[in-house]
Model the fold of this input.
Amino acid sequence: MAEAPSLRIALGSIFIECNQLGGVPTDLGCFERCELRRGDEILKQDTGVVGGMSGVLRERQSEIVPLLVATACPSGALTADCHAQLKGELLQRLRDALPIDGLLLALHGAAAANGTGDLEGDLLAAVREITGPDLPIVVTLDLHAHITEAMVRLADALVAWETYPHRDAFTTGERGARLLLDIIDGKVRPTMAMAKVPVLTGSVHGNTEGDGPFAEIMRQAKSHEHSGAALSTSVLHVYPYLDLPDLGSGGLAITNDDPAAAERIAIELANHYWAKRFDMEPEVFTPAEAIKRGLAIEGGPVLLVETADCCGGGAAGDSVATLRQLLEMDIREPCLVPVVDPEAAQRCHEHAPGSTFSISLGHALDPRWGEPLQLTAELTAISNGAFRYTGGFWNGQPGDMGASAVLKVGAIQMLVMSNPTYDWADEQFQSLGLHAKDAKFVVVKNPMNFRVGYQHIAKAALILDTPGPTPATLRGVRYQNLQRPYFPADEDIPEFKPVLLRSWDV
Ligand SMILES: [Zn+2]
Done:
């Protein structure tokens, strides 16, 4: 008996979050340093979203047609060259792969390039030119995605992470692949609706663990999956460091040939989001206030959360705002501070550990947000900056800080790195022998993942209000393209209604 021919499923990824308020432009080197796989190299990948997709396709005896997988640490918008190269290569490989039965794309949802604020919508439009309107296409997204009309119209289904901190890239890949196969098998016919509310908040209260406002909305969303009312639900906490007219958070529902239910669920989630908006705003402190409060707490570490300089949100990581305050207040207890500064790191590598020299530190990559510090410091360690991620999207994969060093002024130790890298836990500190448990103050530059690295040892975490492109609150940000009204600039909007995007509106 002849075997049924196996399905040919193409798989590709361009995954990055792009800051339009600051940060450094993203070039091809950023992807080469992080992850750039082609063809068969993709088939070896057994972690992350692509690993999850591949696992399901293998289990169902589908033939995987690998295209291009390009991921990088969040940063500024892609340069025109970088965008053209990655998009061009993915599309060419797709043309070469035809005919196929379906396409899986692992995208972020908040990528931008010079010339387009909606890299994903632009990519999907180009993909549809090649595949035509009927090929089943499922896209996985970060839950910080900016959902656009083009994405809802051009993909058969959009499936976002369910967790933040992001622990579920692999299982989201599995969800996406299963849904695609069910569509191809004719078991389901997706109808998708997204309802958006103009709520733009930082990530401090955006966790899905515990009883926070976002966790509550996510549980409500997932109840519609568990009841069988929806094939997939997502709650999107839009990445607020884009500057686009149609930014919004809210709910996305995919039902099986039931547009009315998709619309009802999406609107219910968006209204819930709007009702919770005040709970998403954090309490913030100046560095001086936070240090004073920290000194009143017995023991350590106390985390000084400088969210405005978050490499994981696209900032350069080169701020010294909190470091400056620790030095000015002459803190004599051990402190750890990370600073990205390639020139300073290079200078450190010209000296031998044990030597003392003067050095300029900070604001070298993105000078919009502050002045460098002039220090006389002792060099205590150097490294090539290699480390390995212990979780998150790049779980198990290598990270690359580039030439790195530890500088010491009194009891304050500074980890100086050449490249911005994603903060999952404390891998960067650990790789140079810096241990947070021994410190009184640790400066962390991520609004959420400090819960992963330090939750069992931290005595307190204080959220700082400092200059930078990834601030804890958007209250004071001057957007160029985003129009008011939006929360938190406007606390209430008369006759407010969510904006609806529907896959069946052509
Ligand atoms: Zn995210």
Q: What stands out?
A: The longest strand covers residues 373-383. Residues 191-236+248-282+473-506 form one domain. The CA atoms of residues 13 and 69 lie 4 Å apart. The chain has three domains: 1-188, 191-236+248-282+473-506, 287-463.
